[in-house]
Amino acid sequence: MTTAPSLAPGDTIGILGSGQLGRMLAMAAARLGIRCIIYAPESGPACDVAADTIIAAYEDEAALADFAARVRRVTYEFENVPAATAAFLASRLPVHPNPKALAQTQDRATEKTFLNGIGIPTAPFAEVNDVASLTSALKTLGYPAVLKTRRFGYDGKGQVMVKEGMDLAQAFAAVGSVPCVLEGFVPFLREVSVVGARAETGAFAAFDVCENVHENHILARTVVPAAMGEETATKALEMASRIARALDYVGVISVEMFLVGSGEDEHLVVNEIAPRVHNSGHWTLDGAATSQFEQHIRAICGFPLGSTRRHGRVVMQNLIGDDIHSWRELMAERGACLHLYGKHEARPGRKMGHVTRIFPE
Fold first, then answer.
1. pTM, full prediction
2. Has residue 2 got a pLDDT over 80?
3. Which site among 126, 136, 168, 307 is 20 to 30 Å from 23 CA-CA?
4. pLDDT digits (tens, 9 = 90+) for 139-185
5. Strand pairing partners for 353?
6. What is the set of domains in the chain, with CATH numbers?
């Protein structure tokens, strides 16, 4: 990688996407004196706190060229940015993380093949394109197994557990009859994640491994540190660093993992990579010396990475749907750190905000 000149306070960066992750990135950038322009097909929470907004399709090359001319760096808040959009912008200015990293993580089959290729364990998997290949894959992987769309899945969407006796045609139809991967079931004890950042210089800094609890396939709360052996935690950080290095990555990367076994048999299996700031890292806004959002801005701007020191034992709770209506009680709770995303309508399954609580260890 050719290192681009570092930015300075007063410079402007561009963010693709207008959701709450973009909002928190823009707020962190402002804290460091960096202006942000949001580019998205629709207005969202990020637009409320940015210096400017461009509302246009990701395929609108004229609008993208105007966007590129007004900023020094481009990043994104979600991984479903069209690859052609990232490539168009990367031909004009630095885009972090790079389009290669974006492409590797947009497709589950490509991602798992990449991970296995650098020695990172994943669930056993097979590509599935129709009911016949699903039937064949199940003969190899066995029941139960998890059928997932290769692209555009999140918060449990685009996946179904396949159990013995199920109608396989119905299972394939349930995920949209699109290209999929079938994953062998991993009997994990808990889900954990590593949120870390890599700089253009190759420097890498990760936060402590966190433990994630899901309800209805949506992250409900994150607890830090995760309950796991010290040696296993060290391996988790090393795996995340190896992945970032192999992708020539710049910015915050999040690696979701399954913790399997216990004692001497304790080990990790990587579930997926998120090439961006991540919900499981929201605790860092209040629970660490540098938040994941500031760390991402530091990395993409060429600034020194910040300290990942944790302030105590931390619990982050997502406010989903009607949970938001407890905002007044949470504001009155001593020690509760409340973050609201500025969304105007509470819908089931919609992330409206989060609250963080810090306890002495």
1. 0.94
2. no
3. 307
4. 999 999 999 999 876 655 688 999 999 999 999 999 999 999 999 99
5. 319, 340
6. 12-95 (3.40.50.20), 124-184 (3.30.1490.20), 190-359 (3.30.470.20)
